[in-house]
Amino acid sequence: MSLTGKVAIVTGSGRGLGLAYAQELARQGAAVVINDVDAATADAAVKTIVDPGGRAVAVAAPVGPTETADALVAAAVENFGRLDILVTNAGVLRDTVLWKMSDDDFDTVIGVHLRGTFTTVRAAATYMRQNEIPGRIICIGSPTGQRGNFGQTNYAAAKAGIVGMVRTWALELKKAGITANAVIPVAATAMTATVPYFAAAVEADAAGEPMPAFFRHDLGFGTSDDVAGLVAYLASDAAAGVTGQAIGIGGDRLQLWSHPEPVATAYREGGWTFEALHEGFADAVGELQSVGERFPALPADLQRPAPTA
Question: Where do the Ketoreductase domain residues begin and end (predicted)?
């Protein structure tokens, strides 16, 4: 189970979920390349690993360009001699509804999340294949990419695309013994901190108190540390047989997301004309699929007033 002797890159690991992933990989014995756009933040993250006796270095650069991906792989090899694990976590949000979303809003999110995942995985997988290392590719998705979310056209597209790439990479890298999986985390982050529905959970987390059981069990909503264990497990030799999967984690809950499959199939001799669909669509497909996430009503003691402007 130990990751001793292994080397990992974690993009977007200066704070939040990414930092939790990096710290857990280090705790399990791996050397870690920390990445953040801000050098001071990256250096502070390195210190949280090095001070307790771990090994880490920082690369301060924006994820997306090929140059950053190459620099991350080079940092792992030059400082620690190899690369075994890549966690693509770097991300940015530009939330707004479709009719207000600018080209820059869209391109920025796609560039960091989707292109950034592609370029770093390409660089890491190339190194692993050339050096016959049965590496681990772990890409961070989101429930938004699985089900959609109001105001997140760009983010939903990027996160759905990441899962699609992971399934493809699992096929392409299988012969090399390299696994590729997506983790779908649900945790207290800067994004959820502003949502009134999660206020009681965020308050508890900020105070260092246990989150209410409703959040941890019923919603599968927890802390960054609750997610980090799955990342470290997927990085280990124990998970050599796990690839091409989208795995949800949060609070007390672990989930395996299904691959998209037809939920209804109907046939009509001669095909489905406009007229035939007009008459028979509802009977042919049955109940339509839901979109977006559906949360149960908050218990009264966990409700908080919405913040005022």
Answer: 6-189
